[in-house]
TrEMBL record:
This is Alkaline phosphatase family protein. InterPro entries: Alkaline_phosphatase_core_sf, Phosphodiest/P_Trfase. It comes from the Bacteria. The lineage of its organism: Bacteria, Bacillati, Actinomycetota, Actinomycetes, Pseudonocardiales.
Amino acid sequence: MDWIVAPDHDGRALPDVLPSLLAAMGTPGFTDTVGFPACRNAAVLLVDGLGWDLLRAYAADAPFLASLATGNPVKVGFPTTTATSITSLGTGSLAGEHGVVGYTFAEPSGGLLHPLSWGTHSSPNASASRRSLLQDWPPESAQPRATVLERAVEAGVDVRIAVPREFKGTGLTRAALRGGEFRGVGAMGDLAAELLTALAVPGPALCYGYHGHLDGLGHGHGPGSLPWRMQLSQIDALVANLASKLPESAVLAVVADHGMVAVDPEDTLDADTEPALQHGVRLIGGEGRARHVYAEPGAGGDVLAAWREAIGCRGVVVTGEQAIDDGWFGPVISGPVRPRIGDVIAVMRESAVVRSAVEPAESSLRGQHGSMTAAEQYVPLLVAQG
């Protein structure tokens, strides 16, 4: 398993970014373990899907970003998926503490939560409609830890989040980013304007911004495709423009939530058509490259053996307990989080375990993530200052 890049706790990972920026601003109660320059105000721009390996491979399409990539990358944690990583960034903790343990995972009523929509996933019945869990399992109950943004507001910081306006009030926003003033945006122009406006206030001020189109194009066309590269060039111009307009004593940090790898949809395992992957299985959560498998009572051993045989050398299949013991979800697993972790965890080195009936759109993606390869786990942390 030498290809597995497990999370570690060296103080320079995605959960350390916001606390370290706040410490660099001189905010009481926070410690800078990353090493940001001292500043009055700070902004962090998260570019969904911008992996470290991808930035280096396509540096010619992003010369300004590449010029900032003079340090080491950071790890995002496991699984390498947007809902988990944004909650790790927003809470300053890994999945074992904050509890958003995957793209989908077991929820208390016996189904699967899809945290991006905060509704029940359509598994195991593909014809079932999704149902919102915002009332039955509020995000503030599922993820009760104070966010870094809430702590910053209590410390007197002007906190804002500049994200797509449709994210207002969503379950993930409430779970991961509650506490900041919501500033809905629709395009790169107002995203940039919101970041610069926040950085120009007397301070102290912290603004979080999000750009998601690179990830979408990577999923649909593949990372490194021409549409993906053209989008990367646009992001490079955005960051270069922001950096040229930074006020004095302001810092802009650019980071990502995960990398991405190319997957051939014709060369995947399909859990919805392979009986061996269904026997003794109650629920299948996660996503193609990182699956939570929840076994029927007493069937855990058989499920483990069947998944190991089916996946073979294309990945690693372990018990949930082994994943926990090996620190995949971080050093701490809170009591309410343990039932959300699968009895069996399958992570892929290559290819993916798709669900053609239950997840038809996800199963056709040409770019995927979730596992613990270096391409998915390492992301850039780029810093510009005024």
